[in-house]
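sry for the spam today, last one i promise. struct tokens for design, 512 residues
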């Protein structure tokens, strides 16, 4: 007898429906076809133990399991549950007519318990697209799947519970989640807030500009000056996620298995801070079984690289193309996978190996040429993609102990949102351009127009400070953002002057 149900395979951030077929006939041995990986091949032993634990029997005749389409490689242990149910139906141990109406996924333990799986959200979305009645899966993943409306989400804890449901012996109410209510209830609930930061007003201002225009930023300063603390608070002043952005971000984290069992939807912008020992594959994604990397996990959020020169050169260089194209393409012999990677890069670094170059009080002990050699670990092409270079100085004792009330993140965010609204109106007819940082060079000339006084100031700055040619467009983009924060329709000379000071690493002789 042949039985059939449906599972799903995740490729990139999208799912593809897989047909699970089982034939129990005369003969011997267990056959698994359809390009399964080792995790699926080992499923026979998990399924056999789980079935026996419920006092059913595993057929001792010929059992053929086919995962179609047979020319696409299947990976992971989440096909255990559909295969087990099909074996029980094909061997006549259960009776049901609903298996073909559901997508079924789940990993079995030896005693029949179900373990959580990855990629639940894209599977739910694809199941609804293909008009399946519902999705049967481990209860630990049910909230994540229930984000998708108009699809019955049946969460089960055990194989026994799944059997009882498909046979109609037990009713399980579909889990319903009000997506918009969940989204609104936790929106902008950040633990870190700028009101807790004493001093560093110039850095707060720079990060506000970065948030308002979507600009990449790098902070250069001695140890303990507050670079990491300030970077961690940047997501709290970014514009709130839209529902579409939240779903898109949650899909990526779902594929990587990082959503968690108690969460249904990511409502805050992600903040990823990988260690400097990370490999290039872990950063951009890939591997034998392609998975999203850190730059995709920070999609619609912030990627923070602490101690930037300590990262391997190859790791930093592979970021250059994704930063421009805002996506990562992982190519294999039979498949090419795209992961979105629209993130803000925020980096921090010491000015030298000892950390005290240009320090107001402590003396740098690095020898001649050491500082320049240290800074040259970060390539020019990468710095070219960073708009704001900010020098961070230590906070004085008086600033740390002041009782002055600081601006909260919500107050700063209001200004950022207003500036982004101006940019949304400006780029409403442009495809894939949402903020000033995304402007190509030809658009900069059209939008970032400066008057004669501004041109003279910029010319003088480039000559006297030794600014590089690559700084020109960056200064204009940043000055446009500063003007947006001031709700000014034109770029004034003070906006341009402020933008010029954020090009520290472009100045000739900055590091000797």
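last one done:
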């Amino acid at each position: 007898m042949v039985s059939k149900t449906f599972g799903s395979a995740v490729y990139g951030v999208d799912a593809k429906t897989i047909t699970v077929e089982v034939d129990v006939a005369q003969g011997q041995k267990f056959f698994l076809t359809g390009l399964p990986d080792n995790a699926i091949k080992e499923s026979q032993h998990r399924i056999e133990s789980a079935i026996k634990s419920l006092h059913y029997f595993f057929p001792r005749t010929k059992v053929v399991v086919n995962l179609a389409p047979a020319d696409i490689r299947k990976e992971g242990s989440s096909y255990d549950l559909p295969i087990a149910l099909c074996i029980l139906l094909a061997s006549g141990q259960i009776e049901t007519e609903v298996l073909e109406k559901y997508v079924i996924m789940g990993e079995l333990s030896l005693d029949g318990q179900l373990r959580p799986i990855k990629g639940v959200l894209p599977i739910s979305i694809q199941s609804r697209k293909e008009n399946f009645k519902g999705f049967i899966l481990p209860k630990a993943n049910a909230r994540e799947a229930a984000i998708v409306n108009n699809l019955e989400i049946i969460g089960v804890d055990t194989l026994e519970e799944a059997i009882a449901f498909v046979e109609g012996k037990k009713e399980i109410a579909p889990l319903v989640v009000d997506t918009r209510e969940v989204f609104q209830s936790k929106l902008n609930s950040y633990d870190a807030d700028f009101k807790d930061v004493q001093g560093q007003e110039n850095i707060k201002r720079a990060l506000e500009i970065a948030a308002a225009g979507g600009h990449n930023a790098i902070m250069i300063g001695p140890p303990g000056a507050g670079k990491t603390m300030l970077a961690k608070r940047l997501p709290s002043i970014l514009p709130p996620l839209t529902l579409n952005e939240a779903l898109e971000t949650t899909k990526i984290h779902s594929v990587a298995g990082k959503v968690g069992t108690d969460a249904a939807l990511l409502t805050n912008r992600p903040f990823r801070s990988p260690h400097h020992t990370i490999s290039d594959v872990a950063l951009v994604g890939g591997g034998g079984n392609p998975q999203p990397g850190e730059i995709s996990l920070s999609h619609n959020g912030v990627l923070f690289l602490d101690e930037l020169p300590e990262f391997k050169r190859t790791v930093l260089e592979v970021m250059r193309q994704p930063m421009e194209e805002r996506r990562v393409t992982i190519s294999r012999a039979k498949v090419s996978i795209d992961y979105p990677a629209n993130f803000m890069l925020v980096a921090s670094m010491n000015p030298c190996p000892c950390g005290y170059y240009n320090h107001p009080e402590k003396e740098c002990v690095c020898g001649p040429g050491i500082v320049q050699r240290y800074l040259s670990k970060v390539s020019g092409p990468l710095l070219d993609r960073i708009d704001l270079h900010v020098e961070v100085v230590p906070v004085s004792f008086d600033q740390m102990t002041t009782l002055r009330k600081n601006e909260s993140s919500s107050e700063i965010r209001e200004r950022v949102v207003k500036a982004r609204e101006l940019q949304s109106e400006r780029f409403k007819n442009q495809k894939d351009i949402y903020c000033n940082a995304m402007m190509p060079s030809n658009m900069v000339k059209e939008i970032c127009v400066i008057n004669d006084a501004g041109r003279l100031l910029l010319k003088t700055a480039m000559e006297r400070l030794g600014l590089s040619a690559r700084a020109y467009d960056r200064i204009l983009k940043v000055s446009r953002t500063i003007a947006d924060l001031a709700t000014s329709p034109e770029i004034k000379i003070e906006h341009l002057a402020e933008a010029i000071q954020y090009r520290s690493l472009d100045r000739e002789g900055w590091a000797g």
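The longest helix spans residues 409-426. ok im logging off now
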